[in-house]
Amino acid sequence: MQPATAALLLTLALAGEAWAAHRNQYLRSFPVHSVNDPCYDEDRPRRCMPDFVNAAFGVPIDASSTCGQGKPARFCDLRDPSDGQPPGGSSGGRSGALESTCEICDETDATKRYPALALTDVHNSNNVTCWRSEPRSGTVDAGPDNVTLTLSLGKKFELTYVSLMFCPHAIRPDSMAIYKSADYGKNWLPFQFYSSQCRKLYGRPTKATISPSNEQEARCVDHNRYSVDGVQGSRIAFSTLDGRPSGRDFDNSVILQDWVTATDIRVIFHRLQPASGGGGGGGGSASHAKSQSTELLGGGKFGGLPKKASDFLLPGGGGRDNPAAVGSGVFTYALSDFAVGGRCKCNGHASRCVKGADGKLECDCKHNTAGRDCERCKPFYFDRPWGRGTMRDANECKARSVFPPQDTAEDLFSPRPQTVANLAAVPSSNPSSSDDMILHHHSA
Ligand SMILES: [Ca+2]
C-alpha cells in the first residue's frame, strides 16, 4: 500500500470521530441538558461541583485498637458529679471535684461494646455512641501509644474540615496527629498536629504562621485543653484552609487544591496525657503546660480543684481523691464522632459522584471531561488543554474542529460513505513513513 493511502485512511479515521464530535456540538445548539443540570446554564457550560457532605458518614473506620475486643477490659472515666446541674455558683463549695468511674468493655455484650462503627453512625446527642481504644498508659515514658484510626473514602475528595468529637467524660488526648493520603494509602502526609509539646513531639513550632511559601505544610497546635469534658463531650475541628493565605483565591491555587485533596484520613493518638511534672517528661514544658491549663481551667468549671488531667493521672500528681485513677492503664481514647466535611473532587466538571461499573465512586463528568475525578478531556476533545472548571471559566473540553465553518447542517448529517468501518479492511503501512504528514501532525 502506498504511504499516501495510509495517510488518507488515518485522515478519514480521525475525521469520522471528529465528525461525531462535531455533530454533538451541533446538537448542543438545541437544549440537550436537563433544565436542572448544574453544570450548564441553559447550554453554556459552567463550573459545577458535588454537594458538600460529611464524607465519613456511614463509612467504616479501621481502628488499630478497640476496647473489649478479644477479651473484656476495665476502663475509667473522670466525671464531675455536678454534671447535669446548673453551672456556676455551687462550685466554690464543692470538695470532691472529679470522680473516676470505671466500667467494663466487652464486645460480646451489646451494652458494653465500643466499636469503630460508632464513629461514623448518626450522631444523636441524646444517644451518643462511642468508640474506645483499649486502656492505655498514655505516658511519654511508656512510649507513644500509636492508636490509629483510618478512614478510606475510596475516591479523591476536597476536604474543608476534619472533626473529632470526644465522648462525654473522656479525656481529650494531649498529643495526636492527623495525616492524609491522596493516593489511596500509598503515601501519607501530615495534615495537622496537636500537642502540648509541639517542638518536642513533632518537631514543629506551636501554631506557626503560614506564609504563601509554605501553605502546604502541617501546623502543630496546642489545643490546650487538658480538661475532662462534660456531658456533651468536646470537639476538635481542623479546618484545612484556615490561616492559609491563598484560601481566598482557592480557584487559582494549585498548591491548596492539592493540599485539601485526600482519599484517606488517618488519626494517630500518641499520648493521652501531658508531660509528667516530676519524671522524664521535662520539667520546663510541664510547668508551661500547667500554667496554660490553669489559666484555662482555673476559676472555671473545676475552679479550686486539681487543674489538669495529669494531676489525676500520674502517681503523686495530686490525684489524691481518685485512687482508681492513680497509675496507668485504665484510660482510653474515646470518640463519639469522626466527620470529614468536603466535596467529592470533580475539578469543577461534575455535580455528583456515582458508583461506577466497578462499584467504586466516580464523578459523573460533564463538559466533555473524563476520568474518576474528571481530570482529563474525553478522547477527541483536545482542542484546548484540560483545565479545572472555575467560576470565571468552566474550561470545557472542546472537540478538534476539522470541518470549515461553512459546513451546514445538511453536510453534517448527510451519509458519509468513507466511514472508518469501510476503510478498516485496508492494511496499514509503516507509520514512520515520511509521507505520513497527518500522523506527524497529530503526534506533534
Ligand atoms: Ca457515634
UniProtKB/TrEMBL annotation:
It holds the Pfam family Laminin_N. Residues 1-20 form the signal peptide. Residues 86-95, 276-285 have a biased composition (Gly residues). One of its GO terms (biological process) is dendrite development. The keyword Transit peptide does not apply. Disulfide bonds join C346-C363, C365-C374. It comes from the Eukaryota. PROSITE patterns: EGF_LAM_1 (PS01248), EGF_LAM_2 (PS50027), LAMININ_NTER (PS51117). Gene3D superfamilies: Galactose-binding domain-like (2.60.120.260). Residues 425-435 have a biased composition (Polar residues). This is Laminin N-terminal domain-containing protein. The keyword Transmembrane helix does not apply. It comes from Anopheles melas. Residues 76-97, 276-302, 425-444 are annotated as: Disordered. InterPro entries: Laminin/Netrin_ECM, Laminin_N, LE_dom, LMN_ATRN_NET-like_EGF. One of its GO terms (cellular component) is basement membrane. Keywords: Disulfide bond, Glycoprotein, Laminin EGF-like domain, Repeat, Signal. Residues 44-343 form the Laminin N-terminal domain. The lineage of its organism: Eukaryota, Metazoa, Ecdysozoa, Arthropoda, Hexapoda. Residues 344-399 form the Laminin EGF-like domain.
